[in-house]
Write a structure and sequence with these properties.
single chain; six-stranded mixed beta sheet; globular; 215 residues; 7 helices; alpha/beta; Rossmann fold
Length: 215
């Protein structure tokens, strides 16, 4: 149904997405690239999601979702405390697969794979990390799954706990930004983003918000 028809009917209630990044990962891993590596939250990361849960305690949620990686699942379980819903995990919302970069620091990547870094900086959207994914690959697997949730929760609110790269892809799509500008969007550990989806457009209400601002 088009926006004009909805206006005529007086129905302009959006479908609202509360988009969280997982909390800080286990000590010793915060500076490493763990796209698909399954790393749990640190005590600080748990605290960050508990703060987010308290911030959202009065928000009625029709569903809570997460990637199937432990750091996101733990966050979704914390959000569901005191609610009569359980989180549903979807592998489509995993972080980008860093391939041969998985588990390395930026310095190690620069030393071991300098040509990869140069190629990625030149074409951020399309460069596919060897044995991994490109941002376009991530977009292709995640956005159809998100669209399914938007349709399933029409005019309702739902929450997704995911990852910095994936969140940036979702926000870029909502804002109409090229993926080449992806890193202009900050995503701290435990941060909250809010996006309202109308039939003809998305409105981003909050980016990188929250109660702690911790990186």
């Amino acid at each position: 149904m088009r926006l004009q028809a909805l206006r005529a009917k007086g129905s302009l209630t959006p479908t609202r997405l509360y988009l969280l990044r997982h909390g800080q990962v286990a000590d010793g891993h915060t500076h490493l690239y763990h796209g698909n590596n399954d790393i749990e939250l640190s005590p600080q990361g748990i605290k960050q999601l508990e703060q987010a849960g308290a911030q959202l305690q009065d928000v009625e949620l029709a569903g809570v979702y997460a990637s199937d990686l432990s750091r996101a699942v733990q966050g979704a379980e914390i959000i569901c405390r005191g609610r009569e819903i359980k989180p549903r995990t979807l592998p489509e919302f995993r972080e980008i697969h860093f391939g041969v970069w998985e588990g390395l620091s930026f310095q190690e990547i620069a030393e071991q794979y300098p040509d990869h870094l140069q190629a990625r900086f030149q074409d951020l959207a399309n460069f596919r990390i060897p044995e991994g994914e490109s941002l376009m690959d991530l977009k292709a697997r995640a956005l159809p799954a998100l669209q399914g949730l938007i349709e399933a929760h029409y005019e309702q609110a739902f929450l997704l706990v995911a990852h910095a790269g994936l969140n940036r892809v979702i926000l870029s799509e909502a804002l109409g930004l090229s993926l080449q500008n992806l890193f202009r969007l900050d995503q701290n550990y435990g941060c909250l983003n809010i996006i309202d989806y109308f039939p003809d457009m998305a409105v981003v209400r909050m980016v990188n918000g929250g109660v702690n601002g911790s990186k």
